[in-house]
Specification:
The chain is of the alpha+beta class and 360 residues long. The protein contains seven helices and 23 strands. The strands form six sheets. The protein has a seven-stranded antiparallel sheet with strand order 20-19-18-17-23-22-21, covered by helices on one side.
């Protein structure tokens, strides 16, 4: 049987609906949905066809929408609608992509009278703006919470049984529902940071294979077949290392640019996500460990006398270790210390170079 949601004659989505309040039987029913500007109509399906008259409607004025909705552990593809009369509707979809697409369309209909807000919603769908004071340590603590944290399950993959695991898509849903990210792209970036900093680790062939990708953003999979688990290091209290001492004056400059970049370490030559603060008067570039609660830099240097340049993307440049390439730039200090840094795009790399050059 083919069911679908139609708006303007275009089939958008398959849905199942569970009305919880104001209904006698609280069972799951297949319904055909029609999304209009101010309401959501649903129809019964008989003999594979939609009945001519709607079975019911959901008025969108004053509605609030929750997506992803994690109230049902075994139903990860839900959208929750709460009307202004406090009636709850749960709609289930057949894939995360379709669920998120419908959630965006329904949200647009709810705010149809506010075009500026609708434009902002569409911009946020593909936005990349992580929280400035994000703490990966805090996220992991929330993930481990027995009541509100991410649900751990047993999984069997290619004959191997894994205990206390979660899927990539489940983590992405959890990060969004707990307001750590506003889009799946942001959540994937956050999850990649958690994996890079060894808070979580891939298990099983599907997720382990993805770590071989050179692109940082492709190493974590937003996939229901990719398994992950907490790394042992995230369950232990790591002893604090001796903190680097920074002169108060070098941290007094005005911050002219901030952002997350991937930096190669000096000793182990591994790549880690760091938050960078570019300061002027005096000109310094400091970087912070996003896993640390305290807002203290773990490194930094004066930009006076530095050289900054983009590195070619065709092959791994000399001095760069590991399977990382693309969107790289290099900073050489006046003491001949080389810093290799990776941006998320060529445009972002160019912006950082343009911001650094006048301060050298």
């Amino acid at each position: 049987t083919t069911q679908g949601l139609w708006r303007g004659g275009f089939c958008l989505q398959n849905y199942v609906i569970l009305p919880l309040q104001g209904h006698i039987v609280r069972n799951w029913k297949v319904r055909w949905f029609v999304l209009l500007q101010d309401k959501l109509l649903y129809y019964k399906i008989e003999g594979g066809k939609k009945e001519p008259s709607p079975k019911g409607r959901i008025l969108l004025d004053g509605c609030t929408i929750t997506c992803p909705c994690l109230e049902y552990e075994n139903r990860p593809l839900l959208i929750k609608l709460k009307t202004k009369t406090n009636t709850d509707y749960f709609l289930e979809c057949c894939s995360r992509e379709e669920r998120d697409s419908w959630a965006l369309d329904i949200t647009g209909a709810i705010h149809a009278g506010h075009p500026v807000q609708v434009q902002e919603l569409h911009r946020m769908k593909n936005s990349f703006k992580l929280l400035e004071n994000i703490s990966l340590h805090h996220i992991v603590e929330r993930m481990c919470d027995s009541s509100t944290g991410i649900k751990l399950t047993r999984n069997l993959q290619q004959g191997n049984r894994y205990k206390e695991t979660f899927t990539g898509s489940a983590l992405v849903d959890w990060l969004i529902s707990n307001s750590f990210a506003v889009s799946r792209f942001e959540a994937i970036t956050l999850a990649s940071m958690l994996m890079e900093e060894n808070f979580i680790k891939p298990v099983g062939a599907r997720s382990t294979e993805a770590t071989r990708f050179s692109n940082f953003s492709e190493q974590f999979l937003d996939d229901s077949t990719a398994l992950y688990m907490f790394a042992e290091s995230s369950k232990k209290n790591i002893s604090s290392k001796e903190e680097l001492q920074f002169n108060t004056s070098e941290l007094s400059g005005t911050i002219v640019k901030q952002g997350f970049l991937v930096k190669q370490g000096h000793k182990r030559k591994n790549w880690k996500v760091r938050r960078f603060d570019l300061r002027a008067d005096p000109a310094f570039l400091h970087y912070y460990d996003p896993t640390k609660e305290e807002n203290r830099p773990v490194g930094g240097f004066s930009l006076r006398g530095c050289l900054v340049s983009a590195l070619e993307d065709n092959g791994v440049p000399a001095g760069v270790k590991g399977n990382v390439q693309g969107n790289l730039f290099k900073i050489i200090t006046k003491n001949d210390i080389h810093y290799y840094i990776q941006a998320s795009s060529k445009a972002e790399r160019a912006q950082w170079i343009e911001a650094i050059k006048p301060l050298t």
